[in-house]
Amino acid sequence: MLWEQQLEFASLSDVGMRRQNNQDSVTTSVESEREDWERTGHMFIVADGMGGHAVGELASKIAIDTLPLTYKKSACTTNGDALRDAMEQTNSVIFERGNLNREFERMGTTCSALVLGPEGALIGHVGDSRIYRTRNNRIDQLTFDHSLQWEMLKRGQGSPEDIFLHQPKNIITRSMGPEPEVQVDIEGPYPAMPGDAYILCSDGLTNHVTDEEIGVAATQLSPRAACRFLVNLTNLRGGTDNVSVTIVKIGAIPQGATPSTPRRTPANTGELSGLWLGMAWIVAAFFCLGTILALTGFPFTGLPVAATAILTAGYLLHRWRKTLPPSPTNDNAHSTILWRPYRSSPAKLTRGILNQVIQIQQQMAQVAEEEAWKYDKERFESLTEQAYKALKDKSHHTAFVHFTDSVHSLMDGLKKKTPKKKKDSKIFRMSELAAQQKKP
Fold it and tell me: CB within 8 A of 370, min separation 6: which ones?
């Protein structure tokens, strides 16, 4: 990623339809100076707190306040080490705060952090909040859910169908705060390409919305519109938990832009540096010289030169291998390092996805009329007219944008209802039924 590439990003956190307070927290830390960005990159965080009363809210708030500052002050030589160290220190802060008051004991939070810098996309992760990436009409989950279901699946303790059907999905196996130490997953850095979109979200979203729907929203809509639509869709399907979404899109590379140099020393990834490559070429040249001399009548000179080159190559290969990081293994049952996405789904706008949005809009419009919602009918009708015109012209992208905008217009009317009338609205029963029918 280059400093000159523009970022378009947005965040939205909502209490949902069933909770009294919001225990999710989100934050963004976008550097305004190139020098700062080259050293630490931009940071985006989603945290989902756990605990009674305001305990979870406090834990997630401590996470988003502490982590960015601790990361920037880190003396570690790589951003990956700095991110891990900062998350471990943040865990200690939450743990110590919890021990100050019996009511706060074992308070905790998930924490998913994305860093976008010269090295690409770097991820730090604890819990079951997620980070996705969309690219080339695919959505990839880049984080491992630290949940009972996913851990059982990893250990081969049943088929995916049995595990996801019979095991509770809300039991997490790792979080920040309850224990004095925490194991942090560091993923990447991955190359960050123009057009990539990164989605950070709490499980309040993924409990109700599919990966495919998340991917289509992130690729077809602006980050602000996509966040708004995904939160609306979650709430229409019951909104059983707080829901938070952050979406970051990477812009095109401007003409004439030059690569930045990371200020922290990157870890050795196994690629040949200029020094090693130069020595390899010198050794190869001596080997070729010795071979030519041996074949042209000077064996007593050529053969020693060639042999020395071979021995030198072996020595250099041995030294280079010692500089490499250890290869990932599966010896550690808690290790989640994989050199591929944990899950991948299509993220292409299809007529089927578009029809689902149309059905949602039609159901909402019908209920809005029956229950006399107060919303901007003129705007809604204008958006609907534009959507159907685009649909007739087979411009599915434009139709999708207008239909999702019209859903938001109706949602404004639903939010104006009193809590009791909102809870009793027919639209929730219709949406929950549709969501249940979609599940395998």
Answer: 426
Contacts of 240 (CB under 8 A, 6+ apart): 16, 17, 18, 204, 207, 208
Lowest mean pLDDT among 51-60, 258-267, 364-373: 258-267
Tokens of 425: 């609205």
Residue 337 has pLDDT above 50, yes or no: no
What's the CA gap between 89 and 167, in Å, rounded? 32
Provide the phi-psi class of 287: left if phi over 0, else alpha when psi is between -120 and 50, else beta.
Answer: alpha
Residue 142: other Cβ atoms inside 10 A: 23
**Cα–Cα nearest to 145, from 106, 171, 113, 109:** 171
7-254 maps to CATH 3.40.50.11480: no
**Tokens of residue 230, six digits:** 């995904």
* 73: nearest Cα among 86, 62, 60: 86
Residues in the chain, total: 440
Cβ pair 144, 125 in contact under 8 A: yes
Q: pLDDT (tens digit, 9 = 90+) per residue, 191-209?
A: 999 999 999 999 999 999 9
For the whole model, what pTM was predicted? 0.80
**Token pair for residue 211?**
């990966």
Comparing CA positions, the residue from 212, 231, 173 lying closest to residue 17 is 231
Q: Where are the domains of the chain?
A: 7-254, 274-322, 351-438
Phi-psi region of 79 (alpha: psi -120 to 50; beta: other; left: phi over 0): alpha
Q: What confidence category does residue 102 fall into, taking pLDDT thresholds of 50, 70 and 90?
A: confident
pLDDT band at 319 (very low <50, low <70, confident <90, very high): low
Question: What digits encode the pLDDT tens for the residues 54-90?
Answer: 789 999 999 999 999 999 999 998 999 999 999 999 9
Neighbours of 261 (CB within 10 A): 8
Question: How crowded is residue 287: how many other Cβ atoms within 10 Å of its Cβ?
Answer: 18
Q: List, in sequence order, every beta strand (DSSP E) within 219-289.
A: 243-250
Locate 251 and state its tokens: 């812009």
